[in-house]
Design brief:
The protein contains eight helices and 13 strands. By secondary structure, it is an alpha+beta fold. The strands form four sheets. Strands 3, 4, 5, 6, 8, 9 and 10 form a seven-stranded mixed β-sheet that branches. It is globular, with a radius of gyration of 20 Å. The protein starts with 15 loop residues before the first strand and ends in a 6-residue tail after the last helix. The relative contact order is 0.17.
């Protein structure tokens, strides 16, 4: 495994069974790398006074398992949009190799509305459209959820439409049609958009794509300046049931997580109930592994993917 900054208890890497699921050495190494990424992220957030909290399954893991959900390797975090924007501005100066902060503003091939912090000395090949493929953690900006169903639905539909258009620019390329397992209707739809964007002169990283993403972020942030908004959530990741109280970010609490502690929203019970229902009852959906197609905890993706003949840029 790659060298990490954090101190990890030797017993952490022992294979074990948790909740009926066997956890091997490789999974423990993935967990350790992600916890090291979290420690680096927290260092920067603490330095600039930024509010950072665990997100979704990471909160669930902390509350129910005091660590990772045994059949998952997910480690996700969220922060209010204003804090997220500060993080984006300081990231290039603060995160040094092997740490790398990636979002749309860094990589035009990035097809998500959040950001990732990667360890570039590792391999976590998941999405062929990205240009960096280290093991990573996700960081989600939180925007205001207006308490008006009609206004929210209008905002939601606008966001979905803009983001879909943005993703098409990134993913409509010739190589897509060569991939196995794609139905003929999907091939024809992608061919239509490929020809459309080619005729328009639209390209990855071009002005049209940048304009779409800017409009998408503007829609997500439409109500952020309103002081009467109670909830903030993952509009930029197109999540409807993933919101938490805005006031909670002034009252985060540290909770045990493996051999460290992570911040969670004060009303985590309400958040988990809203998102999962009876969250104390586990639902095993199979081993997640971020759907990694290629994984290596000891070598950089530039080396591993080259050996396998996989193009990544």
């Amino acid at each position: 495994m790659v060298d990490l900054k954090i101190d990890i208890p030797k017993e952490f890497f022992k294979e074990e069974e948790r909740w009926g699921h066997q956890i091997d050495r490789q999974m423990k190494e993935v967990w350790a790398i992600e916890l090291d990424l979290y420690a680096e992220l927290k260092r920067v957030c603490d330095k600039y006074g930024l509010h950072l909290a665990a997100n979704a399954g990471t909160i669930l893991g902390a509350v129910r398992h005091k660590g990772f959900i045994p059949w998952d390797d997910d480690l996700d975090f969220m922060m209010p949009r204003e804090d997220y924007e500060v993080l984006c501005k300081v990231a290039a100066d603060e995160f040094k190799h092997p740490y790398f902060f990636e979002n749309f503003h860094v990589d035009p091939h990035f097809i998500y509305g959040d950001a990732k912090l990667l360890n570039l000395d590792t391999t976590g090949y998941e999405n062929p459209y990205l240009t960096k493929h280290g093991i990573f953690i996700d960081i989600f900006p939180l925007d205001a959820y207006i308490d008006d169903e009609k206004l929210f639905e209008r905002q939601w539909k606008e966001a979905v439409k803009l983001f879909s258009q943005y993703q098409r620019v990134v993913t409509c390329d010739k190589d897509y049609f060569k991939q196995p397992g794609i139905s003929m209707p999907r091939r024809l739809v992608r061919l239509y958009y490929y020809l459309k964007f080619k005729f328009m002169g639209a390209k990855v990283g071009g002005s049209y794509q940048k304009r779409l993403f800017a409009q998408f972020e503007e829609v997500c942030q439409r109500y952020n300046d309103r002081e009467d908004i109670q909830y903030i959530g993952e509009l930029s990741f197109l999540q409807k049931n993933d919101k938490s109280l805005r006031a909670d970010y002034d009252h985060l609490q540290m909770m045990d997580f493996e051999f460290t502690k992570i911040p969670v929203p004060a009303h985590y019970h309400d958040y988990l109930t809203m998102k999962y229902g009876d969250y104390q009852k586990p639902v095993k959906t199979g081993f997640a592994m971020h759907t990694f197609k290629v994984l290596d905890t000891s070598r950089p993706y530039t080396e591993v993917l080259k050996e396998k003949g996989i193009k990544y840029e």
